[in-house]
């Protein structure tokens, strides 16, 4: 046998051994991934009076899921406060689901809100609870203080 042929055979055997070693070495490594969760937030639009029924009010918002799995049993709380920051209305929108990496337009209708049209109010909605999810505002200290008070 020629020296060239022997070198090529040794080179091929070396490549096969190295490839096998890398393949089996990687298969022994177990990578632990963090638990997948829905990450939820609200993009609040506003609240409106039904012009055909003054007893009926609408809260409009986008429910956004930034996570890689579906958010389930989501409850959204909507509040109306006067200028003295006293809550004059608070109600929880019924539980719902939202798909992963998606958003859903919600129109929450209530008949329980009575306001004095001569006064000014402001309103907001936020995710109060959900299953298998993280709520975005709870990660922001300023919002956490506002919503939990």
Task: Give a written overview of the molecule.
The chain has 149 residues and is of the alpha+beta class. The chain has two domains: 1-32; 38-148, Immunoglobulin-like (Sandwich), CATH 2.60.40. It is 23% helix and 46% strand. It is built from two helices and seven strands; from the N terminus they run αβββββββα. The strands form two sheets. It has a four-stranded mixed beta sheet with strand order 5-2-1-7, with no helix packed on it. Strands 4-3-6 form a three-stranded antiparallel beta sheet, with no helix packed on it. A hairpin with a 4-residue loop joins β3 and β4 (87-98). The longest helix has 26 residues, at 3-28. It is rod-shaped and about 105 Å long. The model has no long low-confidence stretch (mean pLDDT 84).
Number of domain units: 2
* Average pLDDT figure: 84
Biggest sheet: strand arrangement: 5-2-1-7
The CATH first-level class of the largest domain comes to Mainly Beta
**CATH superfamily name of the largest domain?**
Immunoglobulins
Could you name the CATH topology of the largest domain? Immunoglobulin-like
Count of runs of 4 or more consecutive helical residues: 2
Question: What would you say the CATH architecture of the largest domain is?
Answer: Sandwich
| Class computed from helices, strands and strand pairing | alpha+beta
Count of DSSP strands: 7
Our estimate of the beta-strand percent is over 45%
Instruction: Determine Rg (CA atoms, Å).
Output: 29 Å
Query: What letter string, H or E per element, gives the SSE order?
Result: HEEEEEEEH
Residue runs with pLDDT of under 50 for 5 or more positions: none
Question: Portion of residues in helices?
Answer: 10-25%
Determine the N-to-C terminus distance.
Answer: 86 Å
- Overall shape: it is rod-shaped
Please outline the major beta sheet: 4 strands, mixed
